[in-house]
Amino acid sequence: MPFLVSAPRSIVPGLDCRPDRGAEIVRGVQGVEAVHAFKLGCWKGTLRSGLDAYVQAVGPYLNGRKLIYDHQKAGTDIPDLEDALPDLVEAGVHAAIFFPFGGAETLERWTRSAVDAGLSVIVGGHMTQKRFLWSEGGFIHDEAPERIYRLAVQLGVREFVVPGNKPEFVEKYKRVPKERNLICTLLVSSNKAATSVRPAESLVVGGMPLLLAFWSTPLMLKQRLLNWQAR
Fold it and tell me: Which of 146, 140, 217, 214 is nearest to 176 (CA)?
């Protein structure tokens, strides 16, 4: 499976906002070389406007950069819904994020369907909030995230979302592809990680903060990204 972004250090701003605001952000960060893609969120992004309308709003300003669709959280449903994935390609999306808490069959079938449709697949298994794992008082078995990442690697996935505010787990999940001597990309899902994430270590290409861009002006965002790029 080809990499969506092959650069060692990149930034993926999150467009969790209205389409007009998203277009303003995409336009505003032009010239920031480290920005290779943008993440479209479902809940605060495309829910009311629709995916087609959102892509049409930001498309003229992409200049070759990619769109990642985050259904928040895709992969929690039944395997049969795999037949909807080609619609993302028709809408103009280049990649999709899966958090396959719906089980191994959903991950397997959705991944294969996405690849067949021409989508890059990015898989997450551990989220940033408190009380997520069973041992923390949550609902997800402590071994589930690593099992998700391992199966994803077996399926050919090479790009993963990891919780940037939980560095001990980031280090743990880095070892999954390294055991197979594979080069993978980690998308660090924490805005705060933008100041602490390090360049690639060994065979793991690390460090793509998913920045929640809706709270800042495009000028402020651009300056922050340029500062990060210069590190």
Answer: 146
